[in-house]
Amino acid sequence: MRDLGRTRRRMRAMVRQLDLPSMTTVEELSAAVADRAGRPIRLVPRQMRVGEPSGFVERRAETEAIYFEWETSGLHQAHIICHELAHLLCGHLAEPPHADEETARVELPTIDADMVRLILGRSHYDDAAEAEAEILGPS
User: The whole model's pTM is what?
Assistant: First the structure.
């Protein structure tokens, strides 16, 4: 329980460092996180497949893309996006790939491109990382 309190304090301090007004939109929060990270963030609504999470981050060489379920309430969408932004703020994701022409030319015609990005672009977070994102996301 003590660790959870320490994590909450650290997450709240991180939010204060963003210096956002008390009332903010998800788009404003995304822009602030992008400024802090020095990388643009695109918010991409999509219909998730059975077995996929309700949201995830795809790290590309030039940008971050946050995919979130579009067939849910606006409040739930905001929660999903904030959770994924928290993963970015906390450094839970692997380094973005380097732009490489040779890699970009590889073709895998039998594998769905969205599934490749999902599998290769997402780390398996441990329980501590998920707890941090859940605490920071709605903060």
Answer: 0.69
d(CA 20, CA 50): 36
Tokens of 101: 């022409």
Virtual torsion, Cα 40, 45, 50, 51, nearest 10 deg: 20
- 19: tokens are 């210096």
CA dihedral of residues 69, 72, 73, 77 (deg, nearest 10): -10
Alpha-carbon span 13 to 97, nearest angstrom: 29
Q: What is the pLDDT of residues 32-77, one digit of tens each?
A: 889 988 999 999 999 988 888 899 988 887 889 999 999 999 999 9
Handedness of CA 28, 33, 35, 40 (dihedral sign): negative
